[in-house]
Amino acid sequence: MTARDTIGFTLDGASASAAPGESILDAARRLGATIPTLCHLDGYRPDGNCRACVVEIAGERTLAPSCCRAVAPGMHVQTASPRARKSQRMVVEMLLADLPEQGWKWVGSDAGQPHGELSAWATTLGVTVRPELRALERPQPAPDLSHPAMAVNLEACIQCKRCVRACDEEQDNDVIGYAGRGAGSLIVFDLADPMVESTCVACGECVQACPTGALMPKTTLGSQQFDAKVDSVCPFCGVGCLVTYNVRDGAIASVDGRDGPANHGRLCVKGRFGFDYASHPQRLTKPLIRRQGVAKDPASVPTPDDVSAVFREATWDEALDVAANGWRRLAQRHGPMALAGFGSAKGSNEEAYLFQKLVRTGFGNNNVDHCTRLCHASSVAALLEGVGSGAVSNPVGDVEHADLIFVIGANPTQNHPVAATWMKNAAERGARIVVADPRRTGLAPYAWRVLPFNADTDVALLNALIHVVIDEGLVDRDFIEQRVDNFDALAAAVATASPEAMAPICGIDAETLREVARAFATAKGAMILWGMGVSQHVHGTDNARCLIALCAVTGQIGKPGSGLHPLRGQNNVQGASDAGLIPMMLPNYQRVDDAAARGWFERFWGGGAGTDGRGPVHAAVAAAPGVALDPRPGYTVVEIMWKALADDADPHKVRGMYIMGENPAMSDPDLNHARGALAALEHLVVQDIFMTETAWLADVVLPASAWPEKTGTVTNTDRMVQLGRRALAMPGDARLDLWIIQQLAARLGLGWHYPGPDAGVAAVYDEMRQAMHGAIGGITWNRLEREGSVTYPCLSEADPGRPIVFDDRFATPNGRIRLVPASFVPGAEPPDVDYPFVLITGRQLEHWHTGSMTRRASVLDALEPAPTASMHGADMAALGLAPGDAATLESRRGSVTLQLRRDDGTPRGAVFVPFAYWEAAANLLTNPALDPTAKIPEFKYCAIRVGAAAQWPAGGGYRPGTSVPAG
What we know:
Layout: E1 7-11, E2 14-18, H1 24-30, E3 54-57, E4 64-65, E5 76-78, H2 82-97, H3 116-125, H4 131-134, E6 150-152, H5 162-170, E7 176-179, E8 186-189, H6 205-209, E9 215-217, E10 228-233, E11 242-248, E12 251-257, H7 269-273, E13 288-290, H8 307-310, E14 311-313, H9 316-334, E15 339-342, H10 349-363, E16 368-369, H11 377-386, E17 404-408, H12 412-415, H13 417-428, E18 432-436, E19 449-451, H14 458-471, H15 477-483, E20 484-485, H16 487-493, H17 499-506, H18 510-522, E21 526-530, H19 532-535, H20 540-554, E22 563-566, H21 573-578, E23 585-586, E24 590-591, H22 595-606, H23 637-644, E25 656-660, H24 664-667, H25 671-680, E26 683-688, E27 700-703, E28 712-715, E29 720-724, H26 737-747, H27 757-771, H28 773-776, H29 781-787, E30 789-791, E31 817-818, E32 837-842, H30 858-863, E33 868-871, H31 873-878, E34 886-890, E35 895-902, E36 910-914, E37 927-930, E38 937-938, E39 942-948
Parallel strand pairs: 1-5, 15-16, 15-25, 17-18, 17-21, 18-19, 20-31, 21-22, 25-26, 26-27, 32-36, 33-35
Antiparallel strand pairs: 1-2, 3-4, 3-5, 6-9, 7-8, 10-11, 11-12, 13-14, 13-27, 23-24, 28-29, 29-30, 32-39, 34-35, 34-39, 37-38
Helix pairs in contact: 2-3, 9-26, 10-26, 10-27, 11-20, 14-17, 14-18, 14-20, 17-18, 23-25
């Protein structure tokens, strides 16, 4: 900021300068002045209602609230004049006088300040409450302890309304309000409901904003002193919120949101209250080996007490030897294709990188995959084909610059709640949101247009939009001529896909389709965000191809507020894919059948990178002989399961597996088949933190590290590489995942050496950085320790990173988008007379993936303890069912019994089921039919029937005394 850009003024008698628009408060604090604040919170809209921050301005009759008053040229400000200080002290004293003297009875005396910021300011200003004021203490309302996560104690409330702004303006949930008048005014939830009965989604933004403890996490109702504060990254969805763990007595007591680039302090219920899974009593703490003679029964339902009957404890040396020797024997007897590995998107980049390196160099094949095959494989396939990169073109937060936000096949308020807040904030500022989804989701009330299209008809809807753009001359001709290939083929393919022709198929009237297409094409910036409702179909790749085409023909990519963003479901699914945890790609999406790329890795992993221009040179080892890598793409998740049940004569029959942090016995489609495949393996090694449904079918179980127990990097949905730091010690004899992988590699004869703390994580990262130099070459470990988060592509240490890409060229060989036309193809299993309903599976706000972590988090389990199926009320009535009834859902592959929940946002003829509940595993029903390009299963569409159930199944959840199934 130059002198020409500043405003001169006088602060406490000294000359000072401020930026245009800078508040007096911000300028004064920057210059070292002390001004009390209570209603003010950095990052929030200034409110000026507490008047604790008043200052004296020369020539003005009244004192001014410094938080919402901008500096003006020549202004003379006194922050601590007798008049200003007297008023500041009076405000603090009067507010303190209204509160119980001892503080909230649940806040311990060692908390330091019984009323948080208010008491702290009283100490700073030397304020004590006069007896005359104390005698006027207001009647105190009873506390509200109804919510599992948060306690409400309005006796500590000073009505600063920070919680109102937190709820309404930051998270945009509109739950907290201000009711009543005068002395009867108070904070309320909805219509003065108990918090647990309100529409609160437990994001905890209000708790983080509250200055006095009127709203508190129940986990910190005692002492407010912590042993340590550790900065890390949330371990759940792909948004990648930065967090601070507050650690006390060796456990996480609470979590605060940090001002990270993806969340700016915001969190959701999982990120704020889903942390205690790491200390759950069912944590694995000893290596386990299956007892001889104990068969693997995919239909059995063991409990935690059954562990000793199925497995015996072992030393690490024994367990690691048994694990590696079993793989070696199978490979020697049947060849390298007898082995396969599933890595994890729940761990770090370093773990994913080493895991795929172990499979490729230790197993000798490319049979390595992870959950991206079950979520966004089709999106990645279409993006690599069309734009040359499998990642997003711009971050979620770029919706701030969009005029139109097109959300299709995604439910961000449930699956990516913090990302949803940026969309809701954009709508409040005037952006138009279009929500396209068979179900009416939580974003619909903020939408300009809602398109509840018929399930499975994405291509019909999207082709109709593209048709309108082309037919009405709304294409960006310059963009197409300069940067797009195959436009004529696309135009020919959609020529007959008019809105009038597609309306009967997709269920959206023609005029609405035209209106949306025109709005998208003419917007200054239009951004598309999509989820697994687009990708988890046999035509998932075609769906994504259509989205790419819609952006391309309108020129809505490569500039702020426009582009393509597949919302990533797990915390590191982007990073795990980048690191090569997929069967046809080496790190940084270099194909295994590309001889040049494969040769580079053979030399690099064998000792030297070579000098072929594909990466850095290690001169001392450039002549190393290298390792031999299989040139054939490996099998994908579902294909590996098929190969596990293949005939013994099949030379590619999979007989042994290494599964780290994945739970295919819950996450794969057609679970009876998948569990049968896992049980059929001759040698299964599972590395995890709990006895998952998959671990019960293992021969060796290795106790691993939870996310708060490790240091490492993850890459979020925005392409941000972010550093998480270890906050906790591992329980018992559990070990770091990186250490376990390296120990197994040594027993397979791999000569790895990664020195340094935390199993050499920094050394592993540096090797991965070199292997992925075309994306993260400039993001060194030291830089991450310093900055915490850096966006790729970033090719030098001076490079700030590029949040928005494709501004000048695409990552394809010729730098142009390649359009691939798609025709409407129906799903593999449409409903019929015998199975008249469509099953849609997905996640819910409180639970994540297969539930092995979140259902062991006490608050999350309390909020959603049991499996449910959501149906339209009219469908329930037609079947003679009511909300709360037990019902059985049955497909051609299996059946589950669960509780019905009325949801008129679920279309008639469809049923929505979350897949996180083992006692009603939705994937017992789903269809393993695959997208021919991406090999992703069709989780979002299969035929089922619904009927009344006589009773609930026995057991449930992971609480003490409940059953935990093997399958």
